Amino acid sequence: MHSPSQPTRAHAIQARPDTAVILPAHLHDPKSGVVFPIGRTDFRIGRDKDNDLFLNETQVSRRHSVLARSADGFVLRDLGSTNGTYVNGRRITESVLADGDQIVIGATRLVFLVDQRPRTRTGSYALLQKDSRIDKPRVSVDPRQVRGEGIAFGEAGGAVLLRFLEAVTPQQSPQQLLGRALGEIAGIFVAERVVYVAFEATGEPTVAAVHRPGGPSGGEVQVSRSVLEYVRERREAICVEDAASDPRLGPGESIAQWQGHCIMGAPVVRGDQLAGILYLDRPVARGIYAEGDLKLLAALAGILAMCAENAGLYEQLLRAGEFSEAILRCLGSGVVVVDSGGIVQRMNAYSCGLFGMREEEVRGAALDQASWLAPLGKILVDVARDGIPRDRKEVVLQRAPGDDGRLYLGVTAHPLRGPHGDRIGAIANFRDLTGIRALEEEVRRAGRLAALGQMAAGIAHEVRNPLNSIRGFAELLQEQPGTNTEYLGIIVREVDRINRIVQDLLDFARIDRATADVFGLSDLVQDLLKQVTPEATGAKVKVVPPELEPLNARGSAERIRQVLLNLVRNAIEAMQENPPGRERELRLSVRAAARGVALRVSDTGPGIPDDVLSRIFDPFFTSKDRGTGLGLSICQKITEVHGGRLRVETALGKGTTFVLELPPIDAAEGADG
User: What's the rounded Cα separation, in Å, for the pair 214 and 313?
Assistant: First the structure.
């Protein structure tokens, strides 16, 4: 390194930002050279002393090459030299140079730079002096010496190691790492080829990766087996000026074909195992390698071994993570993971689909404070805090606003523990039991309805005949003079009321199937409104013009009309409870829906309380002073017989909407009307 008190020619160019310089690339000995500025005249390189750069080498021609300015920048031209001029590993006749290009002339390696700012680290850029040229072509280095004794490569050599480490450290697959590493090594040593030879389980060598700067990446790859065997047996790096004349390798066909090539090889060792060999070569005509180069290659092989091992471990980690992710994605049950503070760390696809959420929405949130998911979150937080598993707990979640119904979950939760047994969180696995609970309730309801139907049919038949007799005799008595017709009239009216109840019971028992007729829903609604409008007007209820789409349904038009009539009359009755001054509006609509067709009956009444809403379709349940409690049960049964669904949307103080959903029919079956 040049001392700041002893300026070199490099300092002369620090104030010239447009100056191009040639810098040597021999990194193992950065103290032995100078920096050459390139002026506006041609810069000549050759073996004659009158060249701007005098290289006293037999492999360099007297007039070897020239560096000249042009409109495109700086152009390097070969002047018909015997052994050629190389730029970035390729022999050139003429080449426009870019900042950082590496030039090889004979045994001298140079770097071309455009000096764009002052340089203070001039000692890092040195031209190899003539007395430092390679005079010991046959060199071997034990990589353990390189690692153990900490051989100093100089500031530039250390920078190369750091740059190489940065290039191959980023997380990548082992194959990507190899490709990147070989490319870096080819640039550092200006090699014609860099090959990584790995050893299979059988011990046979195989070419795992190859890099040819500027050349094809495929095709057959041949390397010197003698060099490989030497490195493999001795576990030490080797550098030979000419493989065919090196006494360490012995005679043989493998060596003969490499006459005129300079080769370096270095073992890549992981622990006590030889994982592979770094092998690089180039023609002797392009320069030979020195001892410092070999030490640098051995150090790079050590870094490669470490990084390759890390890449393998990282790939295993990625595969394990991907495998775990695949399991979580494919699980037919929900999985939620929280940390020790109850903060959500993971939620699998099943959970997200069930809750109608994206994982990003809940990750990082406190689940026990996440509104409707709080009951599930509480179990996880409790397990994370006390470490006691919860097994087969049933949790009821009220769906998010806008959804109807509840979610019933069967939850099992266990604590998560760290390597030292400390609690680090909790994991819950759960299944959606909503369908099972609904099926159980449906079975119970079907059993009750069947029993009620049989009982209702029997009672109706037994009661109807006596009622008819009572009504008939009451009418006869009304015709007799001197009788109290007022009381007899009450008897007749009450008998008629009982008959209606009996008819409801019979209807409830007999609804078991629907006809297959196709009818228009718009006409049905309009006819219904003609009937109920006078009744609504008398109750001071405004009938809003209906929103009707021309849609059809299949089944019994009379039965569907019966359902709508019951719902409309219930709505009119409900609005009688409105306080003075509050509007009373009845709205009907027919629209296409996801499930087929939706008929809506809406009112602006007081709404339905939760305790009533949960039982509203139960037979014989009523919140009215009068009534059988069969009206909505009959409506629901008619709807189900038609393959539909009857549901309710209500808000206290705002009103109620009953939605009658019927399945779609084929468009070919005709339009409404």
Answer: 32
The Cα–Cα gap between 23 and 125 comes to 6
Classify the C-alpha dihedral 376-382-384-387 as positive or negative: negative
**What are φ and ψ of residue 320, in 5° steps?**
-65, -40
Collapsing DSSP states into helix, strand and coil, what is residue 600?
strand
Q: Which residue has the higher pLDDT, 65 or 148?
A: 65
How far apart (Å, rounded) are the C-alpha atoms in residues 341 and 425?
A: 7
Arch. (CATH architecture) of 518-669 = 2-Layer Sandwich (3.30)
> SS3 for 38?
strand
Distance CA 150, CA 285 (A): 32
Q: Is the dihedral of CA 480, 485, 490, 493 positive or negative?
A: positive
* CATH of span 139-315: 3.30.450.40
* 30-64: pLDDT as tens digits: 333 345 667 777 889 999 999 888 888 888 999 99
Residue type, 401: P
DSSP 217-266: S-S-----HHHHHHHHHH-SEEEES-GGG-TTT-SSHHHHTTTTEEEEEE
pLDDT of residue 10: 28
Q: What is the pLDDT of residues 115-172, one digit of tens each?
A: 443 333 222 222 222 223 323 334 455 554 444 333 334 445 567 777 787 777 765 6
**Integer Cα distance of 634 and 452 in angstroms:** 12
Report the alpha-carbon distance of residue 168 to residue 295 in Å, rounded.
19
CATH (one of 3.10.450.40, 3.30.450.20, 3.50.50.60, 3.30.200.20) for 333-432? 3.30.450.20
| pLDDT tens readout for residues 165-208 | 777 776 567 788 888 899 889 888 888 889 999 987 777 888 88
- Residue 297, CA distances (Å) to 177, 247, 293, 419, 644 in order: 17, 22, 6, 40, 78
